[in-house]
Amino acid sequence: MQESQLARTRRARRVDRLLTERYPDARCELNFRNPLELLIATVLSAQTTDVRVNATTPEVFDRWPDAAAMAGADVRDLEDVLQPVGFYRAKAQAVVGIGTALVERFGGQVPRRMEDLVTLPGVGRKTANVVLGNAFGVPGIAVDTHVQRLSQRLGYTTSEDPVVIEAELGALLERREWTMASHRLIFHGRRTCFARRPACGACPVAALCPSAGIGETDPVKAAAMLKG
């Protein structure tokens, strides 16, 4: 039987409440002290882990602490520091480009509007929503690989387009919950609902998930798979 929008909304909000209980410490796992640091860390996090980014950014922010310093950075020096995060040449260019754009167009400050953020080099809606939600308190849904995978498994969307997923997930959840709901889905994706083989038998939302059973269903075995 096809699920109505109302039923899907109620289910999505119930799932989010259960994930809140499971992950009370859900948060952005990138280390930052200000909007610029979060913006750069999020750009650097593409195709790598937050742990690796957090190990790399202290030197980045020590040597290039503001937009002007980033704009004037020697790209080769940046590349040397960014090698551990992968795609370091493109990311070094993005850091310099972001610094330059911030200095030239935004007075050296990270803008607070989506339409401005996405004009920066290497910044898409996902990165912009991370910055808006965690640095400025503006609710946003950051659709990374975990949010996309879980939104599909939970039956919230059938789309592969992050922009469509953002809109469809946003329609199911209260706006004030968008940022934290994203974190809870990411936590769940990293710790329980793995890409290759989810730990279904230890999942707090299995009873509400149309994909339940695609992974390990034995509760003991599934519990042993959990991370974090």
Automatic annotation (TrEMBL):
Protein name: Endonuclease III
Reported function: DNA repair enzyme that has both DNA N-glycosylase activity and AP-lyase activity. The DNA N-glycosylase activity releases various damaged pyrimidines from DNA by cleaving the N-glycosidic bond, leaving an AP (apurinic/apyrimidinic) site. The AP-lyase activity cleaves the phosphodiester bond 3' to the AP site by a beta-elimination, leaving a 3'-terminal unsaturated sugar and a product with a terminal 5'-phosphate.
Family annotation (NCBIfam families): nth
SUPFAM superfamilies named in the record: DNA-glycosylase
Coiled-coil stretches noted in the UniProt entry, renumbered to this chain: none
CDD domains for the chain: ENDO3c (cd00056)
CC cofactor: [4Fe-4S] cluster
Record bears the keyword 4Fe-4S: yes
Catalysed reaction, written as an equation: 2'-deoxyribonucleotide-(2'-deoxyribose 5'-phosphate)-2'-deoxyribonucleotide-DNA = a 3'-end 2'-deoxyribonucleotide-(2,3-dehydro-2,3-deoxyribose 5'-phosphate)-DNA + a 5'-end 5'-phospho-2'-deoxyribonucleoside-DNA + H(+)
Alphabetic keyword roster: 4Fe-4S, DNA damage, DNA repair, DNA-binding, Endonuclease, Glycosidase, Hydrolase, Iron, Iron-sulfur, Lyase, Metal-binding, Nuclease
Top-rank taxon: Bacteria
Enzyme Commission identifier(s): 4.2.99.18
Cofactor note: Binds 1 [4Fe-4S] cluster.
An example molecular function term from Gene Ontology annotations: endonuclease activity
Binding site for [4Fe-4S] cluster: C193, C200, C203, C209
SMART domains membership: ENDO3c, FES
Positions of the HhH-GPD domain: 44-191
Protein family according to the UniProt entry: Belongs to the Nth/MutY family.
